[in-house]
Design brief:
Elements lengths: L7 H11 L2 E6 L7 E8 L4 E7 L2 H13 L11 E5 L5 E5 L13 H19 L23 H19 L4 H4 L1
Antiparallel strand pairs: 1-2, 2-3, 3-5, 4-5
Length: 176
């Protein structure tokens, strides 16, 4: 976890949207692509504040929250607000519950949870598009449209592999 400070600018913006709140935790991942904080409003609701390092990632997330996530209904958080000015940020609702890896489940409950997750994931995989790629905020291709899934994923995997090798994240065996 990257213990990042929450700027006064973002604090003020959050207060303008949800009212007074307490900063619960920094939930950022070590990759540094975004900063994420869990907030608890005085109303009792929990939110997540997310600030992306790159606007392209934020725009793809905005598009997804507007056009794909509604199909997931109660299984996905909702987009509460977008901060367009720097620092750009998204305010998201929180879902009730705990991550599965943080709780002990019986075999039957674990199977039921995975079945439910698969049902929701099926909705995602049924989304239709004429191209593969990263959409901008309006759903248009950011990097050009690629109509062939195999070509798209080969290019993406090649990019990920090159970045992993450059960063020294893979052993020789993993690269092979």
């Amino acid at each position: 976890m990257c213990a990042m400070e929450l700027s006064e600018t973002l604090v003020s913006w959050c207060v303008s949207v949800i009212g007074a709140f307490t900063l619960v935790s920094d939930c950022s991942h070590p990759h540094g692509e975004s900063q994420v904080w869990q907030l608890k409003a005085t109303t009792g609701e929990t939110y997540y504040l997310k600030a992306h390092r790159r606007s392209g990632k934020r725009d793809r997330e905005v598009w997804a929250y507007r056009h794909v996530v509604p199909d997931f209904q109660e299984f996905a958080p909702r987009l509460v607000a977008i901060r367009e000015e720097l620092p750009q940020a998204l305010l998201l609702s929180a879902l009730p519950g705990e991550p599965m890896e943080c709780i002990a489940l019986t075999h039957n409950k674990q199977q039921a949870a995975w079945h439910r997750a698969g049902t929701v994931l099926r909705r995602y995989h049924s989304v239709q598009s004429a191209w593969f790629g990263r959409p901008d905020r309006n759903g248009e291709p950011q990097d050009g449209a690629q109509p062939d899934a195999q070509t798209f994923w080969q290019e993406r995997f090649g990019d990920w592999l090159a970045r992993a090798e450059k960063g020294g994240y893979l052993s020789n065996d993993e690269t092979d």
